[in-house]
Amino acid sequence: MIYVGIDIAKETHVAAAVNTDGVIQLEPFAFQNNHDGFQLLKTNLDSLNKNDLIIGLESTAHYAENVIFFLHSLGYKLAVINPVQTAAVRKTGIRKTKTDKIDSLLICKTMALNAFRLYTENDVKTLQLKSLCRFRQNLKKSKARLKIQLTSYVDMIFPELQFFFKSGLHIRTCYELLKVYSSPDDIAALHLTKLSNLLSKASHGRFGKQDAKSLKSLAASSVGVKNTYISIQITQTIAQIELIESQISELEQIICKAMDELDSVIMTVPGIGKLNGAMILGEIGDIHRFSQPSKLLAYAGLDPVVNQFGKFNAKRTRMSKRGSKLLRYALINAAWNVSLNNDTFKRYYDSKIAQGHSHYDALGHTAHKLVRVLFKLLTDNIAFALL
To answer: Which CATH number fits domain 138-248: 1.10.3470, 2.60.40, 1.10.287, 1.50.10?
Structure first.
């Protein structure tokens, strides 16, 4: 067996190869993170027997992804190594030396000494899901920030408007109004019929002539500041919100299509939809990375904080929240939806409420139960109904 270690960096990677006897088959060489660099890597790997090769690299955020996809497309066997393992092997050396060339050989040694898991087709798909779901979450955060900004702008120029619409500012009717008439003076000066038609069309008939009269009266007596620059900020902020909404919608269609292709047993759990399932699968990756449900709980940050000193041992503590934030959010959300769609989980949730737990605490306990179920499903690849 020949182990190939690749030390990943932003611009220049370093690779080396060592056989099981510790004999160097490829001296450490650098290759650029571009087409020519990848072709150099392929040429050097082609000089070795492909069937005897296992290529290892450390898990280093997004920098390794293009290398992983490239080598996977060529049919090489891949293993992603935990940096903690290579750090432990490094400490066994006498000299405290760290260079890219040494690290590439260190990865080879780590694979020879420790158990590792080969990268699979599912790993590639879940890695893509992870990237898509995190991008979607970032877009949703950007949208939330823009909504807060829009509220602050309207508070300055037309503070009474947010109380006119029972559902608040962030509805289609309000956006359609503000995109064209973003100041109270403009709204007050509008012909009643024109304003009435605008509201009726945007709300599909929900708002009519009487609402238009009330809005004109409210705008005429508004105490908001008269500032045309704020009006510009309002119209542009709404444009940004609507752009992000269209991007999120497009992204969700792609994620749902990817989930259809993955055809995971997680979709057999009542209450877990494609988007929530995608977030869970993307963050977990290969379930076999976790030897037991408690480790998956810790990875999600759902494990309880340990608070113990002397003879004192706290019986109730908060969750650690030290793991994947997106996975924790997805599991809590899934726990609530599953409790609404499955009698067993509903009874469990209700029992925690009856014990005096708050809604969020009860969801945390329900998420613990759900994680154990998901661990069983994904590990054994069986449908929820067969449990």
So the answer is: 1.10.287
